[in-house]
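Section 4.2 – Deliverable D4.2 (structural model, holo form)

The reporting period included a commitment to supply a predicted holo structure for the target in complex with NAP. Inputs used:
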Amino acid sequence: MSVDDPFSMIIFGASGDLARRKLIPALWSLYAARTLPEPFAIVCTARTDMSDGEFRTRMRESVGEFARLHPPSEQVWERFAAALCYVPGDPTSPDLYPRLEGRLGEIEAKLGAANRLFYCATPPSLYDDIVEHLGTSGLAHSGKGWTRIIVEKPFGRDLASARALNQQLASVFSEEQVYRIDHYLGKETVQNILVLRFANGIFEPVWNRNHVAHVQITVAETIGVETRGSYYEEAGALRDMMQNHLLQLLCLIAMEPPVTFDADPVRDEKNKVMRALRPIDPTRLDQIAVRGQYGPGFVGGRRVPGYREEKGVAPNSMTETYAALRLQVDSWRWAGVPFFLRTGKRLPNRVSEIVIRFHRTPHMIFRRDPAGVDPNVLVIRIQPDEGLDLTVAAKKPGPAMMLSPVTLDFKYGEVFGEESPEAYERLLLDAINGDATLYARGDWVEQAWALLDPVLTAWGRTPDPSFPNYEAGAWGPTAADALIARDGGTWRNP
Ligand SMILES: NC(=O)c1ccc[n+]([C@@H]2O[C@H](COP(=O)([O-])OP(=O)(O)OC[C@H]3O[C@@H](n4cnc5c(N)ncnc54)[C@H](OP(=O)(O)O)[C@@H]3O)[C@@H](O)[C@H]2O)c1
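Output (structure tokens):
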């Protein structure tokens, strides 16, 4: 759905990795697919000195390397490139902003509108400065159209810093103007969770404590920290993945049906889940949370170094590269159902999935083969191999009554046959069209940090002498198996 207002997008940190690999390729793919509202302008800024021409050449290479759609002809690329310009300058200095204003003034006169979408794609330590300068320079208040701002993750590093950033944003923008991005929410299969739950009548009756024994949410990576060692040292698995992606997934699974699929009803329901999550008791942390750090090992048949040997990582680092939590949603629907969340680096497979494990049948009439009857399991696969499968029991062919689990499998790619848009494409288009449904609201972010703060504090205070406690290529530390076994479960390791 397109509103088709002319607009300008102003990207801070445009010489960086995110702009090169994600933002400009996503904008290009939207343009090439004719879904980007026109006319538009993309004003890019960073300290690196470049002319418009040099910047366009760089972006032509990025698009060739990273975009989902490739330029059908040079003329189409030239038309897109004509909308790209570059203003060199330091975003922490007030001098940059009048120059941006000047360039925007010329552009907006041609566009015939002053709708502005700012994008903070710099290191997070600069967000405060950028927001302040947008306010004091007047850039955030053109008075002649809409103004919005997209803020990249991480949004704070604990409750206090997230609150401070929310306050800083609120001093210049209203909440409706602020778009906190979590690219996970732009994935087709994540959106499909809501369709699965709320466009099908058959799931609602079983989506509760009467039928669900437990829920597992796994986001596993095979990669280590690559070139981001110094960033990861300050973050760790809990901040990098759990506080945002995994808790968002939990909310989509646990939320009540919103009245409509619009920003406020959806986000209100997600907030109710956050309020219902039982606060983590730091005195019982060993029953609720597990942390890990990978040592050397083998992934995909290749020998890989341990975390402490990675570039930018301290040789005695205590940063966790794996985290698992057992959470409880204290609501009528979910009372007593544990939610197990885990995420880690250098695990055997790159996979994101949600497992809904149902209760056993109350009485088993096939007594001769009780071992053959596993409880039903619904698996929602977010990546790769997007889709879902439901495991049910079936009779094995033959004279004896022997049972076997069989899987009913739906593969997104096979059924629809077309390539899904990149998450950034969907999310950028939504922000341009003023739809914040798939963006995080300020109060949600604060609640997520409030939930995890006791774990962050406890782990920060007490180093784990067992680190490194899992080999690269293993499914995390053994304590994580014990965490789920206490409730009679086992992790599904795909
Ligand atoms: N890269 C990704 O795939 C990814 C994924 C998810 C989220 N993010 C988030 O997106 C944001 C941008 O990521 P990124 O990887 O593109 O970051 P980046 O490459 O480290 O930084 C982006 C740009 O910011 C400018 N910059 C860096 N330090 C600065 C400083 N002290 N003062 C002024 N400008 C400075 C640099 O440009 P100049 O030197 O030219 O000024 C740099 O090219 C981060 O918040 C990151 O957490 C990134």
